[in-house]
Amino acid sequence: MDAPFRQYLGCERFPENLTEPEVAHFFSLSEDDRRTVRRRRRPLNRLGVALQVGFLRLTGAPLNSVEMISPQVLAHLGAELGIAPPRLASIRALYRRHRTLFEHQDAAKQALGLRDLTEHGERALNGFLRREAGDKFLVDELEQAARAWLRDHHYVQLPTRRLRSSASGARRHYDGGLLAGAVAAVGIEQTKVWPLELSETMPNGKTRLEWLRDSPASRKTKGLADHIAKIDFLKKLGADRLHLGLAAGMLNAQARSMLYRKPATLKRMRGERKTIEIACFLRLQLLRLTDGGLGMIDYRIADLWRQARTRAEAAVEDELRRHQALVLQLASLVDDENTSASVARDQMRTMLAPFLPASAHGPSTKVGRVRRELATAGRGASELLGAASSISLDLPSTHPLSQALTTLDRVAGSEMGRLPEGTANPFGRTWAFLIDQPDREAAFGGYRAATLMLLKRSLRNGQASVDHSLEHRAPEDRLIPKAQWQKERARFVRNLAVSAKPEANIRWIKDELTTALKAIDAAVSRGDIRIENDRLVVPKLKAAPEDERLKAIRRELFAGVGKIQLPDLLIAIDAATRFSWALLGRSPASEHELIILYAALIALGSDLTAADMARMTLNIEADAVGEMMRRIEANGRLPAANRLVLDHFRTLPVTRLWGGGIQASADMMSLDATRHLWTARHDPRRRTPAVGTYTHVLDQWVILHDQAVVLNRRQAGAAIEGALRHEAVDLHRVAVDTHGHTHFGMALANLVGFDLAPRLAGMNKRKLYLPRGLDVPASLRPIVSETVSTSAITRGWDPLLRIAASTKSGWCSATYVLDRFGSAARGDEAFQAGDAFGRLLLTRFLGAYLGDPAFRGMNDALLSQGESVHTLQRAIYSGPIGARHGRTPEQMAAISSGLTLLTNVIMTWNATRIGEVRARMPDTFPDHHIMHIAPNAHEHINTKGVITIDVSPHRDRLLGGKPPAAGIRSVT
Question: 178 with 189, same domain?
Answer without folding.
Answer: no
